[in-house]
Amino acid sequence: MHFFRLICAVLLLAGCASMDHGSTQRFMVFTRNDVNIKQTHCNIKNEEGAWSVSPIIPAEINRDGNPMTVECENDTQMGSSQIVPVFYDKYLFQDILLLCVPVCLIDGYTNAFYQYPDHVAVDMQPK
Question: What is the pTM for the complete model shown?
Fold first, then answer.
């Protein structure tokens, strides 16, 4: 009986998507035609936060259901890209099978239904 209560508590406290891949993800920026990659700095921004990274160094970002902007710059170049997240409906179907109301709310609140690509390539252009 205690095991059943534990399972119910876990289902009520976390959604399938939240438990499977969480509200954050690893993300990496690559720059193309970058003449000074050592001085290039990139800013990543979505409605869940902002991160400052160097190219080729992974960052942990918050998932969001809205587009994310990546802007990179060095002394002589700049570039930007906008990334749209993918909605993973498989998690929604799993949540529906497992007491949807509390589970769906948690996954929706944490944006765990969404995922950005693992990386983006930003084309650098002269300023």
Answer: 0.75
